[in-house]
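User: Predict Sec-independent protein translocase protein TatC's structure from this.
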Amino acid sequence: MSSVEDAQPLFSHLLELRNRLLRAILSVIVVFLGLVWFANDIYAFLASPLVERLPEGASMIATDVASPFFTPIKLTLVTSVFVAVPMILYQVWAFVAPGLYKHERKLIMPLLFSSSLLFYAGVAFAYFVVFPLVFGFFTSIAPEGVQVATDIASYLDFVLALFMAFGIAFEIPVAIILLCWTGATDPESLREKRPYIIVGAFVVGMLLTPPDIISQTLLAVPMCLLFEVGLFFSRFYVRDEEEEDDAAEEQ
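Assistant:
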């Protein structure tokens, strides 16, 4: 009898998870259907930082027969996920919130909101600051006699990788707050490790970006600044003994 009763909550949780996933996927599909008509315009907007810096008479090319069709569609799908992130995060929140303690619910919702904003900020920083500098550098150092003509699919893969790198890197303040809140570390300990973290930021910048010093530095420097931001706010999220006693009482 008890095994049947135990199976019922598990089944209800799985059903709830399925419904939340379906709603998240449906939100992406709805956005995609609204944007797919403008797929070529979206790609043109994404490509403008490179196209504006190509030599006179040069243009982007498609080396695969299907690339002119599938590449803008792929970008539109990624854009749809990007636009639907608030709805996706809401579904995540609605699923996990009932199982959280009161003090955890107060923390998770602001972190979901701030992490979304920071990811968007990282992508915007890459597009408006990094891309013009990187593509201006790349197109200016082409050897004499070499025509710069970038494949549209390769360009999309390149910029999406940079978007992910900068979007994830901008989540550093959230990561630091979570580490301090869970007790894995504390602001003072992180402050003492600052020199190692700065070196680590440049190593991460080297690993996550193309092999050029400009994009590496443009990723590492914001990471260092965001570390300081996270360090500042983390002192407000250090769990004291009273908070831990409250958590124990809620259990």
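Residues 102-140 form the longest helix (39 residues).
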